[in-house]
Structure formats: C-alpha cells, structure tokens
C-alpha cells in the first residue's frame, strides 16, 4: 500500500479536538491505539487549533490488530469514521474480525 492509498478519516464527530473543524479531521495522519477500545491517539483537546487547513487526515497506523480491516498494523478500510465512544475519540469503523 502506498502512502497516498491510506484510508481517509471520512468524518470526525469529536468537536473538542484541536484538529477538528466542521467535523473534518485536519491532522496530516492519525494513529489508532490498541488496548480496550480503538482510541484515536492523535486526539488532543487544547486551546490551539492545529492541522493542515486544506487536508483531510489519513490513517497513518493502527494498533488494533483484531479489527477486520487491519493488516500488518495498517488500516485497509475504504475510509473510517471517528467519534466519541468508550474514549473521547474512537474509531467507529472498528469491527472485530
Ligand atoms: S477500521 Fe479497524 S483497522 Fe481501520 S483504523 Fe479503525 S480499528 Fe484500525
């Protein structure tokens, strides 16, 4: 998979994140964590707005190896959705294989 083929974050409902503008994630890329849930490791809630103004984030890496879309620690979904879940920001496309 080439970097340009990484899945985009289709939408993000985490309004408190510094990378979120109008339900779009503007980080260059995000990482999804392993552990109990599929938490977004890029989520940060500070007073600074960040990211790239015209970019939509890609999924750079994912540690959720039990997800049906995960292969070799990379996401192969067409796109993902992020929003509040068990954590303030979770991958909502996470699906146990
Ligand atoms: S859909 Fe699955 S593999 Fe893709 S980012 Fe979410 S948890 Fe990771």
Reconstruct the topology from this structure:
Layout: E1 9-12, E2 20-21, E3 24-25, E4 29-32, E5 58-62, E6 70-71, E7 74-75, E8 80-83, E9 90-91
The protein binds iron/sulfur cluster.
Iron/sulfur cluster binds at residues 32, 38, 59, 62, 64, 67, 69-70, 75, 77, 80, 91, 93-94.
Overview of the structural elements:
The chain has 97 residues and is an all-beta fold. The chain has one domain (1-97). It is built from no helices and nine strands. It has a three-stranded mixed sheet with strand order 1-8-9, with no helix packed on it. The protein has a two-stranded antiparallel sheet with strand order 2-3. The model has no long low-confidence stretch (mean pLDDT 95). It binds iron/sulfur cluster. Iron/sulfur cluster (SF4) is lined by residues 32, 38, 59, 62, 64, 67, 69-70, 75, 77, 80, 91, 93-94.
CA-based gyration radius = 12 Å
Q: How many E-type strands?
A: 9
Note the gap between the termini: 21 Å
Bound molecules: iron/sulfur cluster
Largest beta-sheet details: 3 strands, mixed
Name the helix and strand elements from N-terminus to C-terminus, one letter apiece.
Answer: EEEEEEEEE
| Average pLDDT rating | 95
Global morphology: globular
Note the beta-strand portion.
25-35%
Strand order within the widest beta sheet: 1-8-9
Number of domain modules: 1
The total count of helices amounts to 0
Helix content: under 10%
